[in-house]
Amino acid sequence: MKNKINIISFMFFLLLTGSAIAGFFGPKDKQAPIIKLNAQVTPDIVFMDKIVIDGQVEDENMIESLKINHIPVMYEIGNNIFFSYIAKLNVGENVLTIQAVDEAGNSAEKTIHITRKLPSQIQLSERLSIAVLPFKHEKIMPDAVSGFQDSLINALTKRNRFQIIERNQIDTILQEQQLSRTRLFDSQTASKLGRLVSARSVITGSIINSDNRIIITAQMIDVETSEVISQQEIWGGLNDPLSAGEMAEGLALKFHQGFPLVDGHIIEKQGGSIVVDIGQHVIKPDRRLIIFRGEPVIHPVTGENVGLDIQVLGHALVIQVQQKTAIARLIDCDEATLNLTDRVITE
């Protein structure tokens, strides 16, 4: 009887100690990965057919999987992963789901809801004119830098958002003015070149190879003020699924996201300024507006409305943004000539 009790006690001891040992050596990590998005890539409303989703995922252990809408976007293993992904958008509501899983099986999920709208169109000649200048580079072959610049110009042109100054025109001015390419990162020199090619803004930046990761930073500089009005960054590894062309497209999309082609109406005039029904969710201060008037074009035979005859009335500079409205200072037009039925669109 005594031996039987000892056996039972021993088995109970093994059960307890076995559970303790399993708990000691077994997985303790119950913390899900943390997904952080770049604040500039989570707008509620966009006016383009693609958008760049980028950010990082952190975890105390290795991250095993990272997907956006079930598509893998992880190109390296670690506990701090940076990612960039170009998502195509349909007109209307789009749902993008980011899911990260660590090696312990813990998962995190973040969902983004983005509505794509179609803005009014206006002739490209009235859009914001931009010159793309040569980028500085470190540990990157010059031919690769030149190829990236060409890809960026092509990507910006295809977006049909900005009026892009031809590269050969920029190269000609550089030679005539004997401007050093190494000084073009300086905002004053960049602005000077921009004025010479009749651009309102210039884009310049740098390409750096850092620990097998390509980091591209770019600034859009206002030619009149020499101030940086937008700064964007995109990155990828040497084994990244994003090619150089895709990184150029991603950078072009980011600038587009910062300058959405959005339209609205004049709802009030107030002593040299106008109030428009465009709020803080889509526009920022120091953005330019084109003021225009659109008259319906009626087919003489069918009587069908076949479009708008657009007359550009002038421009305005946004000086204050509120939740649903913005105030813009008139630049080159008389307040008396404007009607409350006139419209605006971002330059």
Could you explain the architecture of this structure?
With 347 residues, the protein is of the alpha+beta class. The protein folds into three domains: 34-116, Immunoglobulin-like (Sandwich), CATH 2.60.40.650; 124-258, Rossmann fold, CATH 3.40.50; 263-346, FlgT, C-terminal domain (Thrombin, subunit H). Helices cover 22% and strands 40% of the residues. The protein is built from five helices and 20 strands. The chain has helices spanning 2-25, 142-159, 167-177, 187-196, 244-258, and strands at 34-37, 45-46, 50-58, 63-68, 71-72, 80-88, 92-102, 107-116, 129-132, 136-138, 163-164, 201-210, 213-222, 228-237, 263-269, 273-276, 288-298, 305-321, 326-330, 343-346. The strands form four sheets. Strands 9, 10, 11, 12, 13 and 14 form a six-stranded mixed beta sheet that branches. A six-stranded antiparallel barrel has the order 15-16-19-18-17-20. A five-stranded mixed beta sheet has the order 2-8-7-4-5, with no helix packed on it. α2 crosses α5 (244-258). The protein is globular. It starts with a helix and ends with a strand. The model is unreliable at 10-16 and 18-26 (pLDDT under 50).
